[in-house]
Amino acid sequence: MKVKICGIRDLETALYAKEIGTDFIGFVFAKSKRQITAEQAGKIAAGVSEGPLKVGVFVNETLREIEAIAEQSSLDMIQLHGDEPPQFARQLALPVIKAFSFQKGARLSDMLSYPADFILLDSPVGPYRGGNGTSFDWTLLQNETFDRSRLILAGGLNKDNAAEAIDIVQPFAVDVSSGVETNGVKDQEKMKQFIQTAKGVTKR
User: Fold this and answer.
1) Residue 148 vs residues 10, 31, 117, 144: alpha-carbon distances, Å
2) What pLDDT digit, counting tens, does each position of 38-95 carry?
3) Where are the domains of the chain?
4) pTM of the prediction?
5) Which of these is catalytic: 83, 122, 160, 167?
6) How is 82-97 classified by DSSP, letter by letter?
7) Architecture of domain 2-200
8) Is 110 a catalytic residue?
9) What is the DSSP letter of 117?
């Protein structure tokens, strides 16, 4: 099971994420309590060097700004978390993760048709586009037939529910942010426990 830890804001946390086997680290450039600058992300990326893939999270940003930040931050992937149309994603040179808020009544087929390398399903929109620490009903996906090798599951995950979520949804990867924090700050023990739990689940 691949794991993405999002909302990384400092080199120490990024290096620890690398040490425990995190596959992707996320830098949030959109308005958020975890927002960082391209300069900050670039320094973290340089310090981590080889290791987790570096994902930049954007919400309704311009193509030019994304490209500039991607270069300065040495990003490997772009995560679109806003209302970006399919044509926008097709113009990006880097691999794309497209995030959607998922809830009962949502048209999964429409989400899966989006031209992205990965589709991230998150909880319904809260104060921010993602990172709100709430989950959706995973059983809504249980009996759906689709290519789960493109699916990243997010929204309210933590060490206590990750195994159940993975067992029900069978995603390619899971994405966590607030679930590995204490008082809004990344907690190394929670990060380690989450990684151990997620990577310990045997996929069907």
Assistant:
1) 32, 30, 12, 10
2) 999 999 999 998 899 999 999 999 999 999 999 999 999 999 999 999 999 999 999 9
3) 2-200
4) 0.93
5) 122
6) S---HHHHHT-SS-EE
7) Alpha-Beta Barrel (3.20)
8) no
9) S
